[in-house]
Specification:
Order of helices and strands: HHEEHHHH
Number of strands: 2
Strand order of the largest sheet: 1-2
Radius of gyration: 18 Å
Shape: elongated
Strand content: under 5%
Mean pLDDT: 79
Structural class: mainly alpha
Distance between the termini: 28 Å
């Protein structure tokens, strides 16, 4: 017998919380990606430590920095839309998290800790938006 009008999150509300968490993490990792991209684009020695040529696998550090900034801006935008429960944001989130994880694998030689943290967060975000999306949409009020 229930005595109050409020219920703890359960079922679809719990999955909606996972999606909201994923949206917040998308925005947070997007901001960090922009900051890291700015550091790479404007100061090659920050990431390479003065290595010969300043290249990371066939790409210059500046090119990787610009790529990180673009991915970061898209992640912030998609994270905001994901919190609102937009289906297109879910699809974009899956694509951009996969792409961001690939970019982080390319740069693991220069910043291994940062790359591994970003890869782990992308995996958590992918889990949140791929598992039980229909229940999460119900919990968001759709």
């Amino acid at each position: 017998m229930e005595t109050s009008g409020s219920k703890p999150p359960g079922g679809s509300a719990a999955w909606a919380s996972w999606v909201a968490f994923a949206g917040i993490m998308m925005m947070l990792t997007g901001v960090f990606s922009v900051i890291a991209g700015m550091a790479a684009a404007f100061d090659d020695s920050y990431f390479t430590g003065g290595t010969a040529g300043g290249d990371i696998y066939l790409l210059s550090v500046t090119a990787v920095g610009i790529l990180w900034m673009v991915v970061g801006v898209v992640k912030v935008w998609a994270g905001y839309a994901l919190i609102q429960g937009r289906t297109w944001a879910r699809i974009l989130t899956m694509i951009i998290c996969f792409f961001h994880a690939i970019v982080d694998m390319i740069t693991l030689t220069t910043q291994p800790i940062l790359g591994l943290v970003f890869i782990a967060l992308n995996i958590v975000i992918l889990y949140a938006v791929t598992v039980r999306w229909d229940e999460a949409k119900t919990g968001m009020g759709d």
